[in-house]
Amino acid sequence: MIYYFSGTGNSQWVAMQLASKTNDIAVNIIECSVPQSMKDQTIGIVFPIYAWGAPEPVLEFVKKLAGEPAFTYGVCTCGADAGKAMDKLNDIFPLNSKYSIVMPSNYIMGEDVESEEIIASKIAKAKERLEVIAMQILQMQSVNEVNKGSLPWIKSNLANYGFNRFARSTKPFSVTDKCTTCGLCARNCPANTIKMVDGKPQWSEKCYQCTACINRCPVKAIEYGKATTTRGRYQFSHSKY
Question: What domains sit in the chain, N to C, each tagged with a CATH number?
Answer without folding.
Answer: 2-164 (3.40.50.360), 173-230 (3.30.70.20)
